[in-house]
Amino acid sequence: VVSCSKAFGQEITHNLCKQMKFKRTQALESLCQEHIKYFSFALIGFSEGVKECKKTFSSFRWNCEGNESDSDFKFIDITMARVTKEAAFQMAMVSAGIVDGISEQLFIEKISPLKGKSGKHCKNNRYTRNAGQVFTSKGDCDVDLNPGVKFAVTMVKKWQQTVKSAPVEKQMNLHNAKVGAKAIRMNMQKVCKCAGPSGNCATKCCYQTLKPLSVSAAWLKQQYLSAVKVQADPEGGRNRDGRRRLVKVVDKSPPKDTELIYIMESPDYCLQDKEKNSLGTKGRECKPESNGADKCENLCCGRGYTTKTVVESKRCACQFRWCCKVVCERCQSVVTRHHCK
Q1: Tens digit of each residue's pLDDT (9 = 90 or more) over 145-154
Q2: CB–CB of 311/333 below 8 Å?
Q3: Which residues is 309 bridged to in the sheet?
Q4: Which of 100, 123, 170, 202 is 20–30 Å from 230 (CA)?
Q5: From edge to edge, which strands make up the β-sheet containing 188-194?
Q6: pTM for the model
Q7: How many Å apart are CA 52 and CA 74, to the nearest integer?
Q8: Quick one: which H or E segment has residue 132?
Q9: Which pLDDT tens digit goes with each residue over 50-98?
Q10: What are the pLDDT digits (tens) for 173-188?
Q11: Domains and CATH numbers, the chain
Q12: Has keyword GTP-binding (predicted)?
Protein backbone atom coordinates (compact mmCIF):
# COMPACT_ATOMS: atom_id res chain seq x y z
CA VAL A 1 0.00 0.00 0.00
CA VAL A 2 1.37 3.38 -1.03
CA SER A 3 0.71 6.27 1.36
CA CYS A 4 -1.18 9.30 0.09
CA SER A 5 1.83 11.59 0.63
CA LYS A 6 4.16 9.25 -1.26
CA ALA A 7 1.69 8.87 -4.12
CA PHE A 8 1.29 12.65 -4.30
CA GLY A 9 5.08 13.07 -4.38
CA GLN A 10 5.39 10.52 -7.18
CA GLU A 11 2.74 12.35 -9.21
CA ILE A 12 4.57 15.67 -8.79
CA THR A 13 7.85 14.08 -9.89
CA HIS A 14 6.17 12.49 -12.90
CA ASN A 15 4.67 15.79 -14.02
CA LEU A 16 7.90 17.74 -13.49
CA CYS A 17 9.88 15.33 -15.64
CA LYS A 18 7.21 15.49 -18.35
CA GLN A 19 7.24 19.29 -18.38
CA MET A 20 11.00 19.87 -18.42
CA LYS A 21 12.01 21.79 -21.53
CA PHE A 22 14.33 19.42 -23.31
CA LYS A 23 14.05 16.88 -26.07
CA ARG A 24 12.45 14.08 -24.09
CA THR A 25 13.67 10.57 -24.59
CA GLN A 26 12.55 7.55 -22.63
CA ALA A 27 16.02 6.92 -21.19
CA LEU A 28 16.50 10.47 -19.90
CA GLU A 29 12.91 10.80 -18.76
CA SER A 30 13.23 7.58 -16.78
CA LEU A 31 16.45 8.87 -15.22
CA CYS A 32 14.61 12.05 -14.26
CA GLN A 33 11.76 10.06 -12.69
CA GLU A 34 14.17 7.94 -10.67
CA HIS A 35 16.47 10.77 -9.54
CA ILE A 36 14.49 14.00 -9.75
CA LYS A 37 16.73 15.88 -7.30
CA TYR A 38 19.99 15.01 -9.02
CA PHE A 39 18.43 15.56 -12.43
CA SER A 40 17.22 19.05 -11.55
CA PHE A 41 20.67 19.92 -10.16
CA ALA A 42 22.23 18.46 -13.32
CA LEU A 43 20.10 20.68 -15.58
CA ILE A 44 21.32 23.77 -13.72
CA GLY A 45 24.91 22.62 -14.11
CA PHE A 46 24.39 21.68 -17.76
CA SER A 47 23.12 25.19 -18.49
CA GLU A 48 26.15 26.72 -16.76
CA GLY A 49 28.45 24.44 -18.74
CA VAL A 50 26.87 25.60 -22.00
CA LYS A 51 27.33 29.24 -20.93
CA GLU A 52 31.02 28.65 -20.20
CA CYS A 53 31.44 26.92 -23.56
CA LYS A 54 29.92 29.88 -25.39
CA LYS A 55 31.96 32.36 -23.36
CA THR A 56 35.22 30.48 -24.00
CA PHE A 57 34.70 30.37 -27.78
CA SER A 58 32.73 33.60 -28.25
CA SER A 59 35.34 35.14 -30.55
CA PHE A 60 36.08 32.00 -32.59
CA ARG A 61 34.49 30.81 -35.84
CA TRP A 62 32.94 27.93 -33.93
CA ASN A 63 31.34 29.61 -30.95
CA CYS A 64 29.65 26.64 -29.28
CA GLU A 65 26.46 27.31 -31.20
CA GLY A 66 24.72 24.66 -33.26
CA ASN A 67 21.78 24.39 -35.62
CA GLU A 68 19.04 24.15 -33.02
CA SER A 69 16.48 23.14 -35.66
CA ASP A 70 18.47 19.93 -36.14
CA SER A 71 17.04 17.61 -33.51
CA ASP A 72 18.93 14.47 -34.47
CA PHE A 73 21.82 14.96 -32.06
CA LYS A 74 20.53 17.00 -29.15
CA PHE A 75 21.63 16.55 -25.56
CA ILE A 76 18.93 18.09 -23.33
CA ASP A 77 18.13 21.10 -25.56
CA ILE A 78 21.52 21.70 -27.18
CA THR A 79 22.63 20.39 -30.58
CA MET A 80 26.00 18.81 -29.93
CA ALA A 81 29.02 18.98 -32.20
CA ARG A 82 30.28 15.63 -33.48
CA VAL A 83 33.65 13.81 -33.65
CA THR A 84 35.85 16.96 -33.77
CA LYS A 85 38.01 18.76 -31.21
CA GLU A 86 35.13 21.17 -30.72
CA ALA A 87 32.83 18.26 -29.93
CA ALA A 88 35.41 17.06 -27.40
CA PHE A 89 35.48 20.40 -25.60
CA GLN A 90 31.70 20.82 -25.68
CA MET A 91 31.05 17.38 -24.18
CA ALA A 92 33.70 17.87 -21.51
CA MET A 93 32.35 21.30 -20.63
CA VAL A 94 28.73 20.26 -20.17
CA SER A 95 29.89 17.23 -18.17
CA ALA A 96 31.97 19.51 -15.94
CA GLY A 97 28.90 21.71 -15.53
CA ILE A 98 26.77 18.75 -14.45
CA VAL A 99 29.38 17.64 -11.88
CA ASP A 100 29.73 21.20 -10.60
CA GLY A 101 25.98 21.79 -10.40
CA ILE A 102 25.24 18.61 -8.47
CA SER A 103 28.26 18.91 -6.17
CA GLU A 104 27.54 22.53 -5.27
CA GLN A 105 23.88 21.92 -4.47
CA LEU A 106 24.64 18.83 -2.38
CA PHE A 107 27.27 20.78 -0.44
CA ILE A 108 24.78 23.57 0.25
CA GLU A 109 22.28 21.00 1.49
CA LYS A 110 24.90 19.50 3.77
CA ILE A 111 26.07 22.67 5.48
CA SER A 112 22.91 24.82 5.45
CA PRO A 113 21.29 23.22 8.54
CA LEU A 114 24.52 23.71 10.50
CA LYS A 115 25.32 27.31 9.69
CA GLY A 116 25.71 29.54 12.73
CA LYS A 117 26.45 26.65 15.08
CA SER A 118 30.03 27.63 15.96
CA GLY A 119 31.55 25.62 13.16
CA LYS A 120 30.11 22.31 14.37
CA HIS A 121 29.65 21.27 10.77
CA CYS A 122 33.43 21.25 10.55
CA LYS A 123 34.20 19.45 13.82
CA ASN A 124 35.89 16.55 12.05
CA ASN A 125 37.98 18.84 9.89
CA ARG A 126 39.87 20.57 12.70
CA TYR A 127 43.62 20.17 12.78
CA THR A 128 46.25 21.25 15.27
CA ARG A 129 49.24 22.92 13.70
CA ASN A 130 52.39 20.82 13.91
CA ALA A 131 56.01 21.94 13.90
CA GLY A 132 56.05 22.06 10.12
CA GLN A 133 52.98 24.33 9.97
CA VAL A 134 51.10 21.63 8.03
CA PHE A 135 47.35 21.08 8.16
CA THR A 136 45.95 17.79 6.91
CA SER A 137 42.33 17.43 5.81
CA LYS A 138 40.19 14.50 6.96
CA GLY A 139 37.58 15.45 4.41
CA ASP A 140 34.28 15.25 6.31
CA CYS A 141 33.36 18.76 5.19
CA ASP A 142 34.86 18.56 1.73
CA VAL A 143 32.68 18.97 -1.33
CA ASP A 144 31.94 15.39 -2.42
CA LEU A 145 32.34 15.11 -6.18
CA ASN A 146 31.59 11.39 -6.44
CA PRO A 147 27.76 11.60 -6.73
CA GLY A 148 28.05 14.29 -9.41
CA VAL A 149 30.70 12.42 -11.39
CA LYS A 150 28.69 9.20 -11.29
CA PHE A 151 25.49 10.94 -12.37
CA ALA A 152 27.19 12.88 -15.19
CA VAL A 153 28.59 9.66 -16.66
CA THR A 154 25.22 7.93 -16.28
CA MET A 155 23.48 10.86 -17.96
CA VAL A 156 25.81 10.76 -20.96
CA LYS A 157 25.38 6.99 -21.27
CA LYS A 158 21.58 7.30 -21.14
CA TRP A 159 21.61 10.06 -23.74
CA GLN A 160 23.81 8.03 -26.07
CA GLN A 161 21.24 5.24 -25.99
CA THR A 162 18.84 7.62 -27.71
CA VAL A 163 20.98 8.93 -30.60
CA LYS A 164 22.40 7.22 -33.65
CA SER A 165 26.18 7.18 -33.60
CA ALA A 166 29.02 4.75 -34.22
CA PRO A 167 30.55 2.88 -31.26
CA VAL A 168 33.80 4.79 -31.66
CA GLU A 169 31.94 8.12 -31.34
CA LYS A 170 30.13 6.89 -28.24
CA GLN A 171 33.46 5.96 -26.67
CA MET A 172 34.90 9.34 -27.61
CA ASN A 173 31.99 11.17 -25.96
CA LEU A 174 32.19 9.08 -22.80
CA HIS A 175 35.95 9.59 -22.52
CA ASN A 176 35.60 13.36 -22.94
CA ALA A 177 32.74 13.47 -20.42
CA LYS A 178 35.09 11.87 -17.91
CA VAL A 179 37.79 14.42 -18.75
CA GLY A 180 35.22 17.12 -17.97
CA ALA A 181 34.61 15.56 -14.57
CA LYS A 182 38.38 15.35 -14.09
CA ALA A 183 38.61 19.09 -14.74
CA ILE A 184 36.45 19.78 -11.69
CA ARG A 185 38.45 17.36 -9.54
CA MET A 186 41.78 18.88 -10.58
CA ASN A 187 40.64 22.44 -9.89
CA MET A 188 39.40 22.21 -6.32
CA GLN A 189 40.67 24.61 -3.67
CA LYS A 190 41.38 24.23 0.04
CA VAL A 191 39.73 26.80 2.30
CA CYS A 192 40.87 27.17 5.91
CA LYS A 193 39.39 29.18 8.77
CA CYS A 194 40.88 29.76 12.18
CA ALA A 195 39.13 27.81 14.93
CA GLY A 196 41.51 28.22 17.87
CA PRO A 197 40.80 30.18 21.09
CA SER A 198 41.26 33.95 21.00
CA GLY A 199 41.78 33.79 17.26
CA ASN A 200 45.37 32.56 17.55
CA CYS A 201 44.80 30.09 14.72
CA ALA A 202 46.46 27.21 16.58
CA THR A 203 43.65 25.12 15.14
CA LYS A 204 42.20 25.44 11.66
CA CYS A 205 39.04 24.18 10.04
CA CYS A 206 39.94 23.26 6.45
CA TYR A 207 37.93 21.76 3.65
CA GLN A 208 38.08 21.25 -0.11
CA THR A 209 35.58 23.25 -2.11
CA LEU A 210 34.80 24.17 -5.70
CA LYS A 211 36.50 26.86 -7.73
CA PRO A 212 34.41 28.86 -10.23
CA LEU A 213 33.42 26.80 -13.28
CA SER A 214 35.37 29.26 -15.42
CA VAL A 215 38.61 27.85 -13.94
CA SER A 216 37.74 24.38 -15.21
CA ALA A 217 36.74 25.91 -18.55
CA ALA A 218 40.19 27.49 -18.88
CA TRP A 219 41.85 24.16 -18.04
CA LEU A 220 39.71 22.36 -20.62
CA LYS A 221 40.59 25.02 -23.22
CA GLN A 222 44.24 24.05 -22.78
CA GLN A 223 43.33 20.39 -23.20
CA TYR A 224 41.40 21.35 -26.35
CA LEU A 225 44.49 23.00 -27.82
CA SER A 226 46.46 19.79 -27.32
CA ALA A 227 43.64 17.32 -28.09
CA VAL A 228 44.73 14.04 -29.67
CA LYS A 229 43.25 12.23 -32.65
CA VAL A 230 42.19 8.64 -31.97
CA GLN A 231 40.92 5.59 -33.81
CA ALA A 232 39.71 2.12 -32.97
CA ASP A 233 42.73 -0.07 -32.23
CA PRO A 234 43.79 -1.49 -35.63
CA GLU A 235 45.26 -4.51 -33.84
CA GLY A 236 41.85 -5.38 -32.41
CA GLY A 237 42.60 -4.57 -28.78
CA ARG A 238 39.49 -4.40 -26.63
CA ASN A 239 38.38 -2.84 -23.36
CA ARG A 240 37.07 -4.85 -20.43
CA ASP A 241 33.52 -4.37 -21.70
CA GLY A 242 34.44 -5.94 -25.05
CA ARG A 243 34.43 -2.74 -27.10
CA ARG A 244 37.31 -1.91 -29.44
CA ARG A 245 39.89 0.12 -27.58
CA LEU A 246 40.62 3.68 -28.70
CA VAL A 247 44.27 4.49 -29.39
CA LYS A 248 46.11 7.58 -30.58
CA VAL A 249 46.64 7.73 -34.32
CA VAL A 250 50.19 9.01 -33.89
CA ASP A 251 51.64 6.16 -31.80
CA LYS A 252 48.82 3.66 -31.09
CA SER A 253 49.00 4.35 -27.33
CA PRO A 254 45.81 4.76 -25.24
CA PRO A 255 44.83 8.38 -24.48
CA LYS A 256 45.41 9.69 -20.96
CA ASP A 257 42.45 10.41 -18.69
CA THR A 258 43.29 14.12 -18.89
CA GLU A 259 43.46 14.29 -22.70
CA LEU A 260 40.55 15.37 -24.86
CA ILE A 261 40.18 13.13 -27.91
CA TYR A 262 38.64 13.48 -31.35
CA ILE A 263 38.12 11.32 -34.43
CA MET A 264 37.95 13.69 -37.41
CA GLU A 265 39.66 16.96 -38.26
CA SER A 266 37.56 20.09 -37.81
CA PRO A 267 36.01 21.98 -40.74
CA ASP A 268 36.91 25.64 -41.09
CA TYR A 269 33.40 26.68 -39.89
CA CYS A 270 33.36 29.49 -42.48
CA LEU A 271 30.12 28.50 -44.21
CA GLN A 272 26.86 27.08 -42.99
CA ASP A 273 26.89 23.29 -43.22
CA LYS A 274 24.27 21.30 -41.33
CA GLU A 275 26.15 18.03 -41.75
CA LYS A 276 29.23 19.50 -40.09
CA ASN A 277 27.24 21.40 -37.44
CA SER A 278 28.64 24.67 -38.79
CA LEU A 279 26.54 27.82 -38.69
CA GLY A 280 29.12 29.77 -40.69
CA THR A 281 30.26 33.26 -39.73
CA LYS A 282 27.98 35.40 -41.91
CA GLY A 283 26.57 38.23 -39.79
CA ARG A 284 29.01 37.69 -36.91
CA GLU A 285 30.45 40.82 -35.33
CA CYS A 286 34.21 41.18 -35.79
CA LYS A 287 37.01 43.59 -34.89
CA PRO A 288 39.28 44.89 -37.68
CA GLU A 289 42.11 45.88 -35.34
CA SER A 290 42.05 42.77 -33.15
CA ASN A 291 45.02 40.43 -33.00
CA GLY A 292 42.83 37.57 -31.81
CA ALA A 293 40.45 35.07 -33.35
CA ASP A 294 37.77 37.77 -33.75
CA LYS A 295 39.90 39.80 -36.20
CA CYS A 296 37.65 40.46 -39.21
CA GLU A 297 40.14 39.03 -41.69
CA ASN A 298 40.13 35.74 -39.81
CA LEU A 299 36.56 35.50 -38.56
CA CYS A 300 35.06 36.45 -41.93
CA CYS A 301 37.24 33.93 -43.80
CA GLY A 302 38.36 36.54 -46.31
CA ARG A 303 34.82 37.40 -47.44
CA GLY A 304 35.04 40.95 -46.17
CA TYR A 305 32.80 42.77 -43.74
CA THR A 306 30.35 45.63 -43.49
CA THR A 307 30.80 48.68 -41.28
CA LYS A 308 27.90 50.54 -39.76
CA THR A 309 27.70 53.45 -37.33
CA VAL A 310 24.78 53.31 -34.95
CA VAL A 311 23.48 55.20 -31.93
CA GLU A 312 23.06 52.96 -28.90
CA SER A 313 21.24 53.71 -25.68
CA LYS A 314 22.21 52.18 -22.36
CA ARG A 315 21.84 52.76 -18.64
CA CYS A 316 24.40 55.06 -17.03
CA ALA A 317 25.06 57.24 -13.97
CA CYS A 318 23.28 54.73 -11.76
CA GLN A 319 22.70 55.70 -8.14
CA PHE A 320 21.34 53.85 -5.13
CA ARG A 321 18.31 55.55 -3.57
CA TRP A 322 17.32 54.86 0.03
CA CYS A 323 15.42 52.70 0.30
CA CYS A 324 15.71 50.52 -1.80
CA LYS A 325 16.17 50.97 -5.51
CA VAL A 326 18.73 51.85 -8.15
CA VAL A 327 17.93 54.81 -10.40
CA CYS A 328 19.76 55.23 -13.71
CA GLU A 329 19.86 57.70 -16.55
CA ARG A 330 19.81 56.74 -20.23
CA CYS A 331 22.92 57.67 -22.15
CA GLN A 332 23.41 57.57 -25.89
CA SER A 333 26.67 56.87 -27.64
CA VAL A 334 27.77 56.55 -31.25
CA VAL A 335 29.50 53.24 -31.95
CA THR A 336 30.88 51.55 -35.03
CA ARG A 337 30.02 47.90 -35.61
CA HIS A 338 31.58 45.50 -38.10
CA HIS A 339 29.88 42.32 -39.33
CA CYS A 340 31.05 39.54 -41.61
CA LYS A 341 29.59 39.40 -45.12
Answers
A1: 999 999 999 9
A2: yes
A3: 336
A4: 100
A5: 126-128, 203-210, 188-194
A6: 0.85
A7: 18
A8: none
A9: 999 999 999 999 999 987 765 678 898 888 999 999 999 999 999 999 9
A10: 999 999 999 999 999 9
A11: 14-114+142-189+212-280 (no CATH), 282-340 (3.30.2460.20)
A12: no
